[in-house]
């Protein structure tokens, strides 16, 4: 049911689970979210 709805990206062999997790974590290790620059600062109240 989940695969037919597009919730799965891939089905991996249990023997390859560790390798896939390591690859995913290495990819995310240096990922940084690019935030837009601030247009306005906070004014003191």
Which features does this protein show?
45 residues; mainly alpha; 1 helix; 29% helix; 0% strand
Present the secondary structure layout.
Layout: H1 17-29
Summed up, what is this model?
With 45 residues, this protein is mainly α. Helix content is 29%, strand content 0%.
**Percent helix:** 25-40%
Helix count, DSSP H or I runs of 4 or more residues: 1
**From N to C, what is the helix and strand string?**
H
Indicate the overall shape.
Answer: elongated
Task: Tell me which oligomeric state these chains represent.
Answer: single chain
What does this structure look like?
With 45 residues, the protein is mainly alpha-helical. The chain starts with 16 loop residues before the first helix and ends in a 16-residue tail after the last helix. It has one helix and no strands. It is 29% helix and 0% strand.
């Amino acid at each position: 049911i989940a695969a037919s709805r597009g919730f799965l990206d891939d089905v991996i062999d249990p023997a390859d689970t560790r390798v896939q997790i390591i690859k995913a974590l290495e990819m995310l290790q240096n990922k940084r979210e690019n935030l837009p620059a601030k247009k306005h600062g906070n004014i003191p109240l």
